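Why does residue order matter? Because the sequence determines the fold. Keep that principle in mind as you read this record.
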Amino acid sequence: MGFPRFCALAEHGLLVEFGAEIAEAIHARVRALDAALAADPPAGMIETVPAYAGLLIRFDPLVTDHAAVEAAARARLAAPPPVARAAAPRAVEGCYEGALAPDLAEVAARTGLTPEAVIAAHLAGEYRVYMYGFAPGYAYLAGVPAALLLPRKTAARRDIPAGSVLIAGPQCLVSTLKMPTGWWIIGRSPTQILTDDPARPFLFEVGEAVRFTRLTRAEFDARGAAR
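Structure:
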């Protein structure tokens, strides 16, 4: 069966699947449908939730049903996609030194790179926000350079500080809470992902580009002292 696929979820959701892998072309279709529904929401639609390869459409079952929502989604897929506004990448600062980067040496050993080459590769990555999930503000970024692709660890590490810069496979994120992780910790960021704005609670929107910039340890410490 080809894509897109339309899958009913409970009595109030429809999942539109565009593929089964992390790929920019697939996610572009997710974003296009998301934007089209936002610009012209069908009756009863409550919200849309984009992910790597699919879009969840939540609706009020007292107003509409799966068939009507699917028809609305198909109609918007058949129309020209909304024109996307180009925006400058969001900047995220990161320090890759000492105890802030506890897995940097092992990532270097496993990839055959020097620690400096790992940092350079990470800074050169062109990242994009593909989805939010797992915890508040956890923006899953795709775009980790091929030289840094590693599977998750076999065991998780507990009590990872908020702001940790993590990579696993083609994904990268900046943690927002203290919690365990099985991803590789290669740095820490003082950039605030969680905001105080109820209208925009997170720094990023799905689809936005992200670039990392490097801080020295002294600069990182100064950012923390300034808060």
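The chain has a mean pLDDT of 94.
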